[in-house]
Design goal:
The complex is a heterodimer of chains A (331) and B (540). Chain A contains twelve helices and six strands. Chain B is α+β, with helices and mostly antiparallel strands. The chains are: A alpha+beta (331), B alpha+beta (540). Chain A: This is Protein translocase subunit SecF.
Chain lengths: 331, 540
């Protein structure tokens, strides 16, 4: 019979709690750097939030960026940003800022650009976002991320203890901050797709954290005498194969999407790939160890867990339970 | 945990069969799809405009114009009632309404009475009381009366304008022959218009947004010497439509009479169509008045033979022909350097009636058909490769149980696509990303269960017991972890629009089908395997 390959060895005993102080340090620096990057460099806001017009064109001849740029700039709509789109050399993305004169005149930009670029150009997509809509989209997006975090906070609070909720939100903020820092660094176009990615990262990060917390809560009920730090280490090690394997399958899907999914989705997928890595890191190194810093009210956990405790007693269980140590492994 | 009653097994299998049926239309030919759609609720996935190509336009009611129209109307009403009551007055426009100065103090009370009547209640709809909401409220200080619009009244008017515009836009778009257009109200002052297959929406957007207020007004006897001259009383300055775009920057200004006696409103049109002038072969628009309009138009032309009258569309004079003879039949034609397309759309907008105010395109996103089909191809390739990669990985990592997981994954995807198809949710490119992401995350439920089973097995339980306990312990976690992801997806659905909302839908439904398959399909397969193979060890 086929024996599956173990990618992650069994019974890892990594002392994550010991590592966590370096983890805090690294995360702290990274978060600070992200904030500084965000404040002093700033995100590369796309048309969704800044307003303006974006064209993606395909030219018959290989595109000459300089020529296109001088043509578009001659219209006097402000400095055009041009970049190659995809790898073919025939496709170019042209971004023009919002022009003066209110909502009314924004659509004039495309008419004029089409006129000056003439024939031999195919317009793959044109997006015009007026100043009012872009402002609203930005407000809504911030609102969305906040609402999602608050909603999740409430859920975790109901489901676990408040310490878990705080630790969750801290690691969420960590993931969001590091993602934003990354977006600033690689100059990714920050648009609605990236907001979608950010919210999905929030969901994924939580998913990871909740799995670890579920296990911690279970062990808190099971191993009443074990010191919290050991218990957390034990929990994180127990779910480590799951955490890493799930990250791998998710990354497999995302990387296929990044390579084969076309130019439009590149930003979204890249953001997601980074987010999954950060979320995996934080669920292993920081979320659980934060719990050790906050402390856990073991009595509350015991009361909440009585029903399950009874069930656990009814079924045969490892003899090691009473000794407060994990059961010996099957050879 | 590993026991399934007969009816439960049947229910699970039935839901899978239904899921397959729901997803089926996506792999059928176009003809079969149409047949199915006709007789059943089965239909293929609805593709978003970013995949099929087309234009998404968000139009907003031009408040400035609406306010202006309301104030001008109010000024006209004030003039009319005061004139009728023979009260001397001076009228001034304010930014928020109209100020009236009564000349003779003795008339003030009488003026108060007639002016009060003008703050008519606004019909606020089914549940509105209609008492509190006047568009204009009246304030009196001595001999001065000031009408100013209030916010509640204005909001109600804007909302009303959107409702009226929806029907009119619908007629206008229908006139163009573009298929499957969707026109939806969005928020309190916006209308979202989806134009599938339209790669160059300029003409359509212009036509949709145009107020199309047409009037026929007599031209004043005196005309300006310079463009900046002030028109005499009861006259107003309008620019003349130029022959070409260059001349448009310095248009000719013409003075036109504004009194209602010299005006015929285009709202009284019955029909309009485009055609060609039989002599000059120039594109024209022919129109026909209804009875009331025909009478007024007949009288106006009969009284003013030999004089020019202006045809004014949206504050611009299209042409100002001389009245050669009374036009009594109620029909006429407009010519004014139109292109064929212009004449066509003018006929359409005149037929569908005037908007209460202009609509401005505040957001417009167009995807050409070639980018759309590129995206579909890329999305399909990426999905297949992602699926193969994930399935291979699961096979390598979990062997037999990996096969179980892969079967569950396929069922999961079929259910996801089936639900999206039958519910009519739109598949966008980010939606495809949501489906691919579901593949990656869906197997997480299997990973959770399998790792747990393995742990229990290694800790000394029997195979059956380990599997049983593994499922029980892990499925609680599956539920917990997916609910958090679901919260994020729902928030995204609530605030997102267009393509991003497509992602949120695919992701959210993917989470639901994932939890469903984890609790039913995976468990059922393992249950059958345990029952038939009676394993002594866990092959993990």
């Amino acid at each position: 019979m086929y024996r599956p390959i173990r990618f992650i060895p069994d019974d890892t005993k990594v002392r994550f709690m010991l590592w966590s102080r370096y983890g805090y340090f690294a995360s702290g620096i990274a978060c600070l750097a992200s904030i500084l990057l965000f404040v002093f460099v700033g995100l590369n806001y796309g048309v969704d939030f800044k307003g303006g017009t974006v064209f993606v064109i395909r030219t018959e001849q290989p595109a000459n960026l300089d020529e296109l740029r001088s043509k578009v700039n001659s219209l006097g709509f402000g400095e055009a940003e041009l970049q190659e789109y995809g790898t073919g050399g025939h496709e170019v993305l042209i971004r023009l800022p919002t022009i003066e004169g209110g909502e009314d005149v924004q659509r004039d930009v495309q008419t004029k650009v089409k006129e000056i670029l003439g024939t031999g150009v195919e317009y793959l997509s044109i997006e015009v976002v007026g100043p009012k809509v872009s402002g609203e989209l930005a407000e809504w997006s911030i609102f969305a991320v906040l609402i999602a975090i608050i909603g999740i906070l409430i859920y975790i609070w109901f489901r676990f203890e408040w310490q878990f909720a705080i630790a969750t939100v801290m690691s969420l903020l960590h993931d969001v901050l590091l993602s934003i820092g990354f977006f600033v660094l690689i100059r990714i176009e920050f648009n609605l797709q990236i907001i979608a990615a950010l919210l999905t990262i929030v969901g994924y990060s939580l998913n990871d954290t909740v799995v670890v917390f579920d296990r911690i809560r279970e062990y808190l009920r099971k191993y009443k005498q074990m010191p919290l730090a050991d218990l957390i280490d034990f929990s994180v090690n127990s779910v480590l194969p799951r955490t890493l394997l799930t990250a791998v399958t998710t990354l497999l899907a995302l990387i296929s999407l990044y390579i084969f999914g076309g130019e439009v989705l590149k930003g979204f997928t890249l953001a997601m790939i980074w987010g999954v890595c950060v979320a995996t890191y934080s669920s292993i190194f920081s979320a659980a160890s934060l719990l050790a810093l906050l402390g856990v009210n073991r009595d509350a956990i015991q009361i909440g867990g009585t029903a399950q405790e009874e069930k656990a007693k009814a079924s045969p269980k490892p003899a090691a339970k009473a000794s407060g140590k994990p059961a010996p492994a099957r050879p | 945990m590993l026991y399934f009653s007969r009816w439960k097994v049947l229910a699970i299998l039935a839901s899978i069969v239904v899921g397959i049926a729901f997803a089926l239309p996506n792999v059928l030919t176009k003809d079969m799809q149409d047949k199915l759609r006709e007789y059943t609720i089965l239909r293929p996935l609805t593709l978003g405009l970013d995949l099929q190509g087309g234009s998404n336009v968000l139009m907003e009611v031009d408040r400035k114009e609406l306010i202006n129209t309301l104030i001008v109307q109010q000024m006209g009403d004030v003039r009319a009632v005061l004139r009728e009551a023979r009260i001397g007055y001076k009228l001034n426009r304010t930014p928020t309404g109209v100020a009236v100065q009564i000349t003779d103090a003795a008339d003030t009370d009488k003026a108060n009475q007639v002016l009060r009547n003008l703050t008519q209640p606004l019909d606020t709809g089914l549940f509105g009381t209609g008492v509190a909401s006047h568009i204009f409220s009246l304030q009196r200080t001595g001999q001065q009366f000031v009408f100013s619009f209030n916010d509640a009244g204005l909001e109600a008017r804007v909302s009303q304008a959107v409702d009226q515009s929806l029907a009119i836009i619908d007629k206008r778009v229908n006139g163009t022959g573009i298929a499957e257009v969707s026109i939806q109200r969005q928020g309190k002052d916006r209308i979202a218009v989806q134009l599938p297959g339209v790669g160059d929406p300029d003409q359509v957007v212009k036509m949709i947004g145009q107020t199309a207020k047409l009037t026929f007004q007599l031209v004043c006897e005196s005309q300006p010497a310079a463009a900046t001259d002030n028109p005499p009383p009861d006259c107003a300055a309008y620019p003349m439509k130029a022959e070409n775009a260059q001349a448009q920057t310095q248009p000719v200004i013409m003075w036109v009479q504004t009194s209602s006696a010299a005006t015929v409103d285009g709202a009284d049109l019955n029909n309009a169509s485009s055609g060609f002038d039989s002599r000059t072969n120039e594109p024209i628009v022919s129109f026909k008045f209804n009875q009331k309009g025909a009478l007024r138009f007949g009288k106006l032309t009969a009284d003013n033979v030999g004089k020019p009258f202006a045809i004014i569309l949206d504050q611009q004079i299209i042409s100002a022909p001389r009245i050669n003879e009374p036009i009594l039949g109620g029909t006429g034609q407009i010519s004014g350097n139109f292109t064929v397309e212009e004449a066509n759309s003018l006929a359409i907008v005149l037929r569908s009636g005037a908007l209460p105010a202009r609509l401005i395109a505040v957001e417009q996103r167009t995807v050409g058909p070639s980018l759309g089909s590129d995206s579909i191809r890329a999305g399909a390739i990426a999905s297949v490769i992602a699926l193969i990669a994930v399935m291979c990985f699961m096979l390598i990592a979990y062997g037999l149980f990996g096969i179980f997981a892969n079967v569950a994954l396929i069922v999961n995807l079929i259910l996801l696509i089936g639900i999206m198809s039958v519910a009519g949710f739109t598949l966008t490119l980010p939606g495809i990303a949501g489906i691919v992401l579901t593949m990656g995350i869906a197997v997480d439920s299997n990973v959770l269960v399998y790792e747990r089973i393995r742990e229990e097995w290694r800790h000394g339980r029997s195979a059956f017991n380990a599997i049983e306990t593994g499922f029980r312990a892990a499925l609680a976690t599956v539920l917990d972890s997916n609910i958090t992801s679901f919260i994020a997806a729902v928030v995204l659905f609530g605030v997102g629009s267009g393509p991003v909302r497509g992602f949120a839908i695919a992701h959210a439904i993917g989470i639901i089908t994932t939890v469903f398959t984890a609790f039913t399909v995976t468990r059922l397969i393992v249950f059958w395997w345990v029952r038939t193979a009676k394993p002594k060890e866990v092959p993990l």
